[in-house]
Design a protein that fits this description.
It contains 11 helices and 5 strands; from the N terminus they run βαββββαααααααααα. The protein has 244 residues and is an alpha+beta fold. The chain has a 5-stranded antiparallel sheet with strand order 1-5-4-3-2, covered by helices on one side. α4 crosses α11 and α5 packs antiparallel against α9. The radius of gyration is 18 Å and the shape is globular. It binds a DNA duplex (13 and 12 nucleotides) through α6, α9 and α10.
Length: 244
Amino acid sequence: MAQTFLTYNLDLDQIADSGQVFRWLRLGDGRYLIPSGSRETEARQDGNRLYLSCSEEDAPFWHSYFDLDTDYGRIIRSCRRIHDSYLNEAMKYGSGIRILRQDLWETIVTFLISQNNNIPRIQKIISRLCQSAGHFPSASEILQTDLSDKGLGYRDKYLKNAAECWQNGIHGCFDSICGVGPKVESCIRLYGCHDLSYAPVDTWMKRVISEDYGGRMPEWISGPYAGVCQQYVFYYKRKTASAC
DNA sequence: CCCCAGGTCCCAT
DNA sequence: ATGGGACATGGG
């Protein structure tokens, strides 16, 4: 019933608030209900131990979901050699962040919704989408669903189009999906394909570049762990810039 | 009323 | 190739 994992550089609170997932549910007492695709598990941690309420046969799935084969301490040490003080601060601040291996279809839909939108509203919309089906809707369920009452705005047609593309098989050409531009594609490749070299540049990253890097692109943005660095910096900027 | 939100599309230069 | 406005919705 309960599986135990030994982990480093993993902080559920930081991951939950890192802007890569929108369906984690805080249960209190440091517990989270964590869905991915059509599965879900309950998680809590105590020091270096991560406890998941899943069967033994599902353990490998969640092991992969939390990317437990990747040594984030090694990534941080490697990136420290760039001697970027802002990045170093961000890595220290959010050292428990990992890049989850999320369900690809869910990632596509989620980040289609994210465009020109804010995080609380993204969460609400996705919650409404899952309410009708009881789980994250498949492509065919999206095609059968009336989306007009989900608060999607103009993005409803993007979802319908994406569902058709997905059913026809879109392997590896995400920008052919209507509504997927460079930023959303970066999110899909980073969170859905685990390509750590993709760094999504959104409004927060633009602020960081202009306010903290003097308008110049940081060196790490073209490195092999650009996506991980971006996640640390995004989290750090959002946490320290917002007074609320 | 305004502006903004993990942008993209479309059209005009 | 680059720049600006439009786009649905909701919150501040």
